[in-house]
Amino acid sequence: MTSLKSPTTPTKSFMATAAAAATAKAEDSAELEKYLAVLATKAATIITATRSSGGRLTSNCNPQPATADWFGLAIHEPASIRTEVKELTRDHIPVIDKAFGVQVSAVLPTHELIPLEYWWLWFDAAAVEKDAHIRSTVYNRMTILLKSIIVVLRASPVNSLIRQNDYFKFTHKMFVGDPDVRNLQSVAKTFKIGPLKTPYGAVYFSGACRETAFSEGSLVSHPLNEQLPRELTPRRSVSETSNIPVRLGVSNKMGERNSSASPGHSPLLDSRRPSETGSPRQIRFAPTGGPAHLIEAPPPKTFAEMQYTGAFASPCKSASESDDETYEIPDRAFADLVSYPDDDDFGSPRYPVQELLKATRPKSILKDVPSKATTSDETTAGRSDGMSPKSAKVSLLAQLSRMDDDDDGFEEDGDLDGYSVRPAFAPPKSQVGSHDLAAFYHQCQAAPNSLKFLEKKGVTVSRTVKSLSQKLVGMESELLEFDKFVDDLRVVGGESSWIMTSSP
Amino acid sequence: MNARRHVIDLTCEARQVEDSVSCLFHTILFHRSLGKFRFREDKLGNQTIVIGTVGFDDVDCTAVDLTYVRCSSTELRRAVAKEVSPFATALQQEASSSSATAAISLEFYEKRPRGLSVMGYDKLPWEIWVIKFTLVQSDTESERLRYRYELAPVLSDKMLTIVDVMNRYEYVPKNPHKDQLDVVFDISFPDVQPYLFRISRNVESSNPSSQSVSKSMGRFLRDALEL
């Protein structure tokens, strides 16, 4: 009886303490889950903003915020990111139950996706720190982890590719579960931040980026890649991937979207054979040999290879067709719409202009055919084969071509009533009388490349300076040849002077 | 307590020194900066701290193909540039004459009273980052480009080293009381609150021994007389 009266009995106090501890533990667990959910959202925001086109994420310091920002960092996630993270993690605890991450891919003009990076948060229940306080210690550590994520994203080689690129587009895709880094084909660099220890386990942040498309020994080139000459390209070995905690064989849940191209189907991702045509044309994949090895840079691109293909323009010539640093001047636009002496429409002997101008009285070489409307050969242009009187005009060379030996180049008086001129863009003789707009349109489409199309878009001063540096490097490499040439000249000159002085 | 000392060795051209130092120092300061503390007292007299928000922005290096992150605080940026720019300029002048080595350090410390409040404070460092430079000269454009391309991955690796150190959660001074905030933090900046830090530079040229001794003595006297 007495044991039921007093509230301070050991049994009840123990039960109260245990209940309080369980409550505290449940609260801590809930706090940790909440912190991890926010951490995942913030990390996704940082990654997507940094890896978007342009790759900048800036924010201002706020010494007096109205409401305290999570983790003391000015990272404002858009509603779309928040919604997407919630949707992906609605049926489990983010990071603890399944890893959460973001895949960054490059989008080719053919809408194919090439995965470039994987970044993900994962949990290891084995590493525990029981004394870590969730609301202060773990929270502060998460702040440092977020700052480290911001720094590491800039340290990745892909960051320079994104910042300097205006050709590719980049996209991201969130995922849960461990990523399959085999999609990267060859991993150049891996990152791992952690452990962030909690009473329930440790949080890690890992990353893996693709080797190609950015390393110095890159096998992938695109039109804006300005590569060093072969002898200047530093050799770097591919880092190993031993510290990636990748559990292969675990299926990934890619959410509702799964738009990435399968590695085995796209010819651009087939490392066994180089892509001949490529898309864009300048991208080539060299066959990879296997494990990590030193990679040499491909030979530098020629000017012809770096051309853009303008609208309605014919495809660029391949490297084998085009000469180094030369450019074939195309014909004038719409040249075949203008008649020339070599036109086959005339098909009559040609006379040099000098002979034609010998006469003391120059004749009027231009005649108005419609005004005369005669069947005389002297007044009709070229052959009288279907040319309507209204449209038939006499060109200078057509008139001259009809001169025979008896013709002293003078017209009879009275015939010079007018003149006829073939207008610009007039159809050739064979098409006189047919106003074929379609033919004109097709000829417009087949116009040769204009020099304007060769100008690179988005050329900045820094890029121009860079290109100048590249050219200077090329010139310096030729200095040795010139020096040798000059030395040879001196030797030859010296010998000749010796011969001259020694000759009697 | 012994301060943690981290030494970073770099080999680069003289014109790349400013970018390299700025990149590494701002990466460190970004991790070691908090928002401004504001103390509030509720109706019950309990004091709470509201911490401000730290912003950041990207910086593209001019002499290196690299981008780094720093706090978007103008005053903090000026404070770092005030020490780094003269160091880089002095190195460029020394490099033109002969090969030079130099070092610059970023030191985090906390103040400890010397005994009587009149005697001032001692500066006890708890973390020191030293960057040692070995300068090279490039005679041709090809060499200049080579150093430009090669330094970027080296600096990236150093940034990752800094990140690794920051996430070890080693000793960091605890948040002090409201009245002793300036013992641990530098409260002179209006928008951020980094831990107390100072930047020291040392340029060694033809006569390294005499210069280092004089500079060390000068620093000792300066610290001793500082109130």
Automatic annotation (TrEMBL), chain A:
* Cellular localisation: Preautophagosomal structure
Q: Which InterPro entries match?
A: ATG13, HORMA_dom_sf
Domain of life assignment: Eukaryota
**Organism placement in taxonomy:** Eukaryota, Metazoa, Ecdysozoa, Tardigrada, Eutardigrada
Gene Ontology CC, one term = phagophore assembly site
Q: Which PANTHER family match?
A: AUTOPHAGY-RELATED PROTEIN 13, PTHR13430
Q: Which UniProt keywords apply?
A: Autophagy
- Compositionally biased spans, kind Polar residues: 372-382
Residues spanning the signal sequence: none
Which family does this protein fall into?
A: Belongs to the ATG13 family. Metazoan subfamily.
Tell me, what is an example of a GO biological process annotation in this record? piecemeal microautophagy of the nucleus
Protein name per its UniProtKB record: Autophagy-related protein 13
Q: Where is the composition biased (Basic and acidic residues)?
A: 228-238
Q: What is its main location?
A: other
Name the segments for region: Disordered.
Answer: 225-298, 362-393
From TrEMBL, chain B:
Designated name of the protein? Autophagy-related protein 101
Alphabetized UniProt keyword annotations: Autophagy
What PANTHER family does UniProt report for this protein, alphabetically?
AUTOPHAGY-RELATED PROTEIN 101
Keyword hit for Metal-binding: no
GO terms classed as biological process: autophagosome assembly
Point out the signal peptide segment.
none
Provide the GO MF annotations for this entry: protein kinase binding
Pfam families hit by this protein: ATG101
Q: Per the record, what is one GO cellular component?
A: phagophore assembly site
User: By its UniProt entry, which InterPro entries does this protein fall under?
Assistant: ATG101
Q: Which organism is it from?
A: Hypsibius exemplaris (Freshwater tardigrade)
> What family is this?
Belongs to the ATG101 family.
Classify the source by domain of life.
Answer: Eukaryota
